[in-house]
Specification:
Order of helices and strands: HHHHEHHHHHHHEEHEEEEE
Strand content: 15-25%
Helix content: 40-55%
Radius of gyration: 22 Å
Structural class: alpha+beta
Largest sheet: 8 strands, mixed
Oligomer: single chain
Length: 341
Amino acid sequence: MINVLLDRSRAGDEQAFAELTAPFRRELHVHCYRILGSMQDAEDALQETLLAAWRALDGYEQRASLRTWLYRIATNRCLNSLRAAGRRAPVEPPFADLPVPEPSRQTEIVWLEPYPDALLDELPGAEPSPDVLYEASEAISLAFIVVLQTLPPRQRAVLILRDVMGFRAVEVAGMLDLTEDSVTSALKRARAALSRAPGLQEAPPAAPDSPEERELVRQLTLAYEAGDTDALVSLMTDDVWLRMPPVPLEYHGRDRTRRFFEVVVFTPGREFRMLPTRANGQPAMGMYLKDPATGMFRASGLLVFDVAGDKVSAITRFENNVLAAFGLPRSLPERIETPGA
């Protein structure tokens, strides 16, 4: 069947090409996201990959599988994108008029977006290669994506292809036009960097939609909607991280995080509503702030919670522009009717 679709595609049949590449599109999108850290950039890279593959079909000699060939194109498109993007400028905090607490550090990783779990459900179910070192859920977590963005682009690509996707060293060398020794060396350095990274050696989280996770989400919702800093902090690990890309500020530990919520988030008169969703294999929530003039609750960002055991190990807040990807509205009425009420 693949050869038939390949022949038809080479003859200019666009529908055949769509059928030929359809089984790989979601996993290629996730692959691009891991390298680039951005949903939109991943979508652009995927479209460039498909266009390049369409134009290069006559040169595809089937020495490697179609999947491997597509991964080669996608990886190099992503590396080209990273080279072209250069360093992105950080954004000024939207709360500059407040006495913002001193951050633990300023991060250079300001270009980061969450990935909806609903799209991860479209990934094909396949037996992982014995070379895979990271489970699928760990390899899409925000903690993992954040650490990937700290690696040099080539090391990043090698680690993803070898330890996440399970390609053999000889295959990766062919994809990146490197020697096997170069691949081995890059992988060694990338693994060493990950072994030192905070947040990746945490206790595993509760299973998705398990009673433990549902209870944590319930408590988080109550804490935010009550503006209860003590309750919220009690749900965090001692070394929790608070991030808010593209704002370059990061807060580490309960004390600094508590202070930020007291001074910036839960100031007097503010009232929130939360809508649950999922991102990067973890619980997430749309956050809505009440407009005192209209009584409407207007979007105030998306929160993603990295979880270790039964505690939150990181909170990452994203801007409103990511809400549409999660099917979340930009505003809520003053009262939310409960079904059956």
